[in-house]
Design a protein that fits this description.
This protein is mainly alpha-helical and about 325 residues long. The chain has 14 helices and 2 strands; from the N terminus they run ααααααααβααβαααα. It has helices at about 5-25, 40-55, 60-70, 100-115, 120-135, 155-160, 170-180, 185-190, 200-205, 215-225, 250-255, 265, 275-285, 285-300; strands at about 195-200, 235. Strands 1-2 form a two-stranded antiparallel sheet. The N and C termini lie far apart (about 45 Å). About 45% of the residues are buried.
Length: about 325
């Protein structure tokens, strides 16, 4: 990336951070929260995340997805990480198969080794998503912290609050609006589908019967990978359109425009003039999309956060302190 491009990105990020700083303060979060209590916390998270992604490039998308799922159910409180227990007999983790739990535990272990009982698992998810954006997307932003970890995780709430891959635009907008996010945030965050993995099971509803909003050639390729009677084979989001499946980029919006995306929830972004214009603008202006994506990540990161004396700082991310 050129020096001029980097300067433009940093200028946009600085403007965006200034615009959102008062919002972050109002939610009880602040930048550099651990400067005194654990000065090396963010560097430690960054180092572990970079190492994990270097060994397995698919982990960048996994970290971003974990953060999204955590924040949309019960807020950004690390409830997505809790295993079953007496107090939490049916948890979010059981509702949908996600990757990255062991990786989060590795980050937590590294932090506990230098600052026991200081850095919350909720902040680990936020930092890891930010650092995955850097490693896999080539841009970065400050992430306010000070989140505390929740005590409960409820299986059924996943289906109440998480958008579905089959969601239409109006349903997506309602889901995002309920969390304090708007159409710009929805379209910007959808760019995370430029990388990562999914299962044929989530794509088959668009193939059998054929979804006419999908590019016919693309559908033919998908049917060869995902036969109607086959199992839940793994797909990588951009691999079928000759793009790096582990790179976070605005290439997603070009795929939306050419109708070569996997989910109804992606293609539906073009079903209304205003969101279709956002798709086109993000496709044409990668730096503007980076700023919008970063801004949306920051807004998402303050959804229903626990701060101050609320919640706890878990000793391990997969169990509450009372269960350990």
């Amino acid at each position: 990336m050129s020096t001029a491009t980097t300067s433009k990105i940093m200028l946009l990020m600085a403007f965006m951070a200034a615009a959102l700083s008062s919002v972050s303060m109002a939610s009880g979060l602040r930048y550099n929260f651990y400067n005194t209590s654990c000065p090396g916390a963010e560097d430690k998270v960054r180092g572990v995340v970079q190492g994990l992604i270097s060994n397995d490039p698919t982990m960048g998308a996994a970290f971003v997805r974990l953060f999204f799922h955590d924040c949309f159910v019960r807020g950004c409180d690390a409830s997505i990480l809790l295993d079953r227990s007496t107090s939490n007999p049916n948890t979010e983790k059981q509702a949908i198969a996600l990757r990255g739990y062991d990786a989060v535990n590795k980050i937590k272990d590294a932090l506990e080794a230098i600052c026991p009982g200081v850095v919350s698992c909720a902040d680990i998810l936020a930092f890891a998503a930010r650092d995955s954006t850097t490693a896999s997307g080539g841009f970065t932003f400050g992430m306010p912290s000070g989140r505390r970890d929740g005590l409960f995780s409820v299986f059924s709430e996943v289906f109440q609050h998480m958008p579905s891959p089959s969601s239409q635009l109006e349903d997506l907008l309602k889901s995002f609006n309920d969390k304090g996010l708007d159409a710009v945030d929805l379209v910007a965050l959808s760019g995370a589908h430029s990388f990562g993995q999914t299962s044929c099971n989530f794509v088959k509803p668009r193939l059998y019967p054929a979804d006419t909003t999908m590019n016919a050639t693309f559908a033919t390729v998908l049917r060869s990978v995902c036969p109607q009677q086959g199992g839940g084979s793994i797909l990588v989001n951009n691999n079928l359109v000759s793009q790096d499946p582990n790179k976070l980029s605005n290439a997603f919006y070009q795929n939306v425009a050419s109708r070569q995306v996997l989910f109804t929830s992606d293609q539906t972004l073009t079903s209304r003039n205003d969101t279709a214009a956002m798709v086109a603008d993000n496709a044409a202006r990668p730096i503007a999309w980076m700023a919008r994506f970063a801004g949306a990540m920051l807004k998402m990161g303050r959804i229903d956060v626990l701060t101050g004396a609320s919640g706890e700082v878990r000793k391990v991310c997969f169990a509450t302190n009372s269960a350990t």
